[in-house]
Amino acid sequence: MQKINKILSQIKPLNQQIMKNVSEHVDQLTKPIGALGRIEEMAIQLAGITGKERPSVKKPAIVVCAGDHGIVSEGVSAYPQEVTKLMIQNFIVGRAAINVLGNQIGATVTVVDVGVNGEVDHPSLVKKKVKNGTNNFFTEDAMSETEAVQAIEAGMEVAQNLIQQGHELIIIGEMGIGNTTASSALIAAYTKAAVQDVVGRGTGLNTDEHQHKIAIIEEALRRRNVNDASPLQVLARVGGLEIAAMTGILLQATANRTPVIVDGLISTAAALVAYEMCPMIKDYLIISHQSVEPGQKAVFEYLNKNPLLSLDLRLGEGTGAALAYPLLDAATRILTEMATFADLGIEKNNEATESTV
């Protein structure tokens, strides 16, 4: 926990002076004030995150954290656990959806085994395995606090390596059968939302299976006694190893003032864990999209955050975040490539440019 505490102490507020300077610059660009809407907001946020008046998000890196979940033995998933290993192989050979979208935006894809149940052997796979999947948190804690810390630190190490390699932005994604169950449990535990309001159909459960999943999570939360637990204890009791690793990526990147794009339900749950450990991180969060999983909405309301896109996605892997990346790239480009009224030799009248240029 010493490494985590050190990183937590290094996380500072957004640079307000830089944000003020960038906001003033944005208002001088050749457009009506506010005409680029949330693109302008992102430009200002990215400036505050990086501490730079001209932030850059070049050389994006996608990280897919993989881990299995013992809770699948309770019949909460439509797919068997073996699918996790098969999908990792698909990521490695570059044929998964995230590889396609990563290629589109020029991003590298790093796959991290932090808790897969079994071995996948390939030179490009980053092996940070803590254990062969979590325990069944219906009958026992998903992992020990020590194992949760190890998984968080694994994510921290991956993030630091990518930052040292010159990646200016990180996209977090995941793979792990059963992870919507763990994510829903975490969201209900932290936000106090009703379980039935945060549990979706995951990979395609029918109505009876969906109700069974809700009942399993409700009983598991009662058994794990999460109400009086610390953020780390909640993660250890009902979370996932890949969720912990993504939490570590968020913490490490934030301490380094490197932007991270959060993907769907599972990485949003990781963002929630990071927030519970360090509330200051809320201002750094960039949520890419709202998936069809209802649990995300509870987090958005809890953190007062809005996603960038709504495309009815429910794949994970970082796909929604990869689709949102061009918006952040656009936000940085308006700061460096767009002319100001002064550049055109025009004295700007703020009232006149509120609706017309």
Automatic annotation (TrEMBL):
Pathway involvement of the protein, from the record: Nucleoside biosynthesis; alpha-ribazole biosynthesis; alpha-ribazole from 5,6-dimethylbenzimidazole: step 1/2
Active site: E317
Gene3D superfamilies in the cross-refs: 1.10.1610.10, 3.40.50.10210
Any Pfam family the entry gives: DBI_PRT
Cited SUPFAM superfamilies: Nicotinate mononucleotide:5,6-dimethylbenzimidazole phosphoribosyltransferase (CobT)
InterPro entries: Nict_dMeBzImd_PRibTrfase, Nict_dMeBzImd_PRibTrfase_bact, Nict_dMeBzImd_PRibTrfase_N, Nict_dMeBzImd_PRibTrfase_sf
Catalytic activity, as annotated: 5,6-dimethylbenzimidazole + nicotinate beta-D-ribonucleotide = alpha-ribazole 5'-phosphate + nicotinate + H(+)
GO molecular function ontology, one term from the record: nicotinate-nucleotide-dimethylbenzimidazole phosphoribosyltransferase activity
Keywords: Cobalamin biosynthesis, Glycosyltransferase, Transferase
Domain of life: Bacteria
Known EC number: 2.4.2.21
Family: Belongs to the CobT family.
Function statement: Catalyzes the synthesis of alpha-ribazole-5'-phosphate from nicotinate mononucleotide (NAMN) and 5,6-dimethylbenzimidazole (DMB).
NCBIfam families hit by this protein: cobT_DBIPRT, PRK00105.1
Protein known as: Nicotinate-nucleotide--dimethylbenzimidazole phosphoribosyltransferase
Biological source species: Alkalihalobacterium chitinilyticum
Gene it is expressed from: cobT
